[in-house]
Write a structure and sequence with these properties.
Helices cover 75% and strands 3% of the residues. The chain is mainly alpha-helical. The chain folds into two domains: 132 residues, no CATH class; 125 residues, no CATH class. The protein is elongated.
Length: 280
């Protein structure tokens, strides 16, 4: 009976761990605002993404009504020059971080609290208003005309129905911590019930190595699937690919930790088995 209980407990522990680790990673790096900002911040240093994002931000800015009529014809080259220098301005890193924070709040907020244009969208959005604030400040300094920055400027990122996926992630990812706790309790129960505890370490170690390999395969498959999805515009194209790369690298660190943990448990089981054999 004790052997049966320990075997069931180990299997339950491994099954819970299989779901808990990816769920906790999603909660830490996608659902939580600070984690998402840490994950996505390096995207702002990608030259191609910087160029396309600056162009999109400038294209969304309409200075009509803010400048004298005689200056209207000459604004195009000024805006072009501003787009080229936007990412080199000292305030760009802070504006990019604020863009990520505002965009995350839009994506993970209750749809009822969103502005109409964001609530009506089923795809994700980037709010580039902080970047436009930086742009208008530069234009004001260059032209001497006081420009007003818009409070919100949305650029669609991703495909339709992504907001539903975001809602599911927000609801289920935090459950990973409870699953991790349940997994730990299951292994403790297995150790208490087992007649040969070294067997539990061996099984847990082999299971940990198997799960690490499974997560790696799942990560590669998910990365390839997301990369193959059509992006809606040039900004989304680079953002999507770079975010996929950053996510795969971040999750890879968790997988590596799990791999070494599994190897440690396996080694501990072997050592305990040898020690027990010598005592016998």
């Amino acid at each position: 009976m004790r052997t049966f209980v320990s075997a069931i407990a180990v299997m339950v522990g491994l099954l819970l761990a299989a779901v808990a680790v990816p769920a906790m990673w999603v909660d830490q790096n996608i659902v939580k605002e600070d984690g998402f900002v840490r994950l996505a911040s390096p995207l702002g240093t990608n030259p191609e993404f910087q160029r396309r994002l600056a162009s999109a931000a400038v294209a969304s800015f309409n200075p009509a009504g803010q400048i004298p009529d005689f200056m209207a014809d000459g604004m195009a080259p000024v805006l072009e020059a501003a787009a080229g220098s936007l990412t080199g301005l000292p305030g760009y890193p802070a504006a990019w971080e604020e863009t990520l924070r505002k965009s995350h709040r839009l994506s993970f907020a209750d749809p009822g609290s969103l502005p109409p244009e964001a609530a009506a969208s089923t795809s994700l959005t980037l709010d580039v208003a902080p970047l436009l604030g930086l742009l208008t400040s530069q234009l004001s300094e260059t032209t001497g005309v006081p420009f007003n920055a818009p409070g919100e400027t949305l650029i669609s990122i991703g495909q339709s129905s992504h907001r539903e996926l975001i809602a599911n992630l927000s609801a289920y990812a935090p459950m990973g911590y409870a699953m991790a706790a349940g997994s730990g309790l299951a292994f403790v129960l297995a150790l208490v019930a087992a007649r040969r505890r070294w067997v539990i370490f061996l099984v847990a170690g082999v299971g940990g190595l198997f799960l690490a390999a499974l997560w790696k395969l799942g990560s590669d498959f998910a990365s390839a699937a997301v990369s193959a999805m059509p992006s809606g515009n040039p900004v989304a194209e680079v953002f999507q690919q770079e975010l996929v790369n950053a996510s795969a690298a971040s999750l890879g660190q968790w997988i590596n930790t799990s791999f070494w943990a599994g190897g440690f448990l396996l080694l501990a089981g072997i050592v305990l088995a040898i020690f027990r054999g010598r005592r016998a």
